[in-house]
Amino acid sequence: MGWLLLAGLGFAEDTVAWGGTQLTDDGEPDTEAPAESEPEPEPEPEPNPEPEPEPVDFSQAQSVDDADFSAPALPEDVAAEAMEVPELSKGQLKWLKPRLKELPPNPRAHTEFTAYTLDWAEVKFGISQVQIGLLPRTQIGTSVPLDVIGLWNANAKVNPLRLGPVDLAIEGSRYMVRQPDFGLTYTSVGGTLSVIATEKIGVHLGSEYWMVGVEGLPDPTAISPALMVSDEDLTKLGVVDLDISGAAVSTRLAVDLRFNRRDSIIVQGAGVVWKETTSNDSPIPLRGLDALAAQEDGLQNPVNAFMVSGAYQMDLKRLSIRLGAGYSTMRFMGLLNSFEVSYRFGGRTKRDERVQRRTWRHNRKDARKNGSDAPDTQAPEASETDGG
Q: Pairing mode, if any, of strands 340-345 and 123-126?
């Protein structure tokens, strides 16, 4: 019955499967039959990579002291191969101190006779000028000594053009004396071209157009003698009224030789090259105008109204001192250009210098706190670090 059942089911194959292996009619394994492929083992998952160290977050730091410079711990295998940074010696710290006399010169530090201006929010208190950086490349100021003697004044300068080593500034000033029966005004507009010729030499060429007006009769008891040729009452000379107007063009040339960030030599010269005046034939009692008005109108010899000066300037952290000598046909002008003591603070340049000094002090403090045992080695020679 069994074979009939198999025949009825149509089992007429030559081979049968036994235990997953195909057999022939003789019961031997059939080696030519394709074997079923075994499933490939699944790849082992890769170990989790080490997390990347998080960068230092400066967004919430208000200053260098607030920033967190601590780095995350290194993996053990990396830490075993890490080398300790050597401690700085006292000699190396001393050599790294940012001394102004060893720093490269700042070619745009001087702002009086150049096209350069104070930094935004920088303030300068000086004997001859008080100035403030009102906006980027824009400053306003006044000459305090002239204010004291009654010649009220204000000045402004804007530096709108900077192309590489070349700067161009537009500037103007206003001077005036006001009395009940007298008025004096000086108004000037002009420009200055400054060129950084080399790292240590700057050349500055400027020109101004002056407009002068004098009306009325001054009271000699209420005006500073520094502005007058004579303190004698003009009415005794037969002068009833002054009516003077005029215009003039002056040019100036200045050269500054900068040895380093601190020391420099400044040479300046200026003169009137053209003028035109009209008056009611009255004598001009105002110093400076008297000699100029005596000349013929038109082109002028600069020696008729000029100023020359030479000075040494030392710029410290905030204090600047200029000492020299000068001469001018107009009283005090030579002195104002050759002598100056000023105090500057604020602005980006002074802030960057302050951060530099503060960073060095922090490094020195850390070295002292850690009790560095590093040998007090000599500082590198200048030729090895800055080319001499």
A: antiparallel
Which runs of E-coded beta strand occur in 289-370?
Answer: 298-299, 306-315, 319-328, 340-345
Strand partners, 131: 124, 141
Closest CA relative to residue 157, chosen from 120, 124, 116: 116
| Residue whose entry in the numeric block shows the structure tokens 């600047």 | 320
Q: List Cβ neighbours of 112 (8 Å cut-off, separation of 6 or more).
A: 128, 129, 340
> Tens digit of pLDDT for each residue in 360-384?
777 777 777 766 545 555 545 444 3
Which of 128, 113, 115, 104 lies closest to 388 in space, CA to CA?
A: 104
Nearest to 152 by CA among 186, 112, 191: 186
Report the alpha-carbon distance of residue 174 to residue 151 in Å, rounded. Answer: 10
Which helix (H) or strand (E) is 271 found in, with range?
strand 263-278
pLDDT tier at 119 (50, 70, 90 boundaries)? very high
CATH of the domain spanning 101-353, picked from 1.10.540, 2.40.128, 2.60.40, 3.30.1560:
2.40.128
Q: How far apart are CA 327 and CA 308, in angstroms?
A: 6
* Domain range list for the chain: 101-353
Q: How many CB atoms lie within 10 A of CB 240?
A: 9
Three-state SS sequence of 158-195: EEEEEECCEEEEEEEEEEEEEECCEEEEEEEEEEEEEE
Alpha-carbon distance values, 281 to 245, 277, 284 (Å) = 12, 11, 9
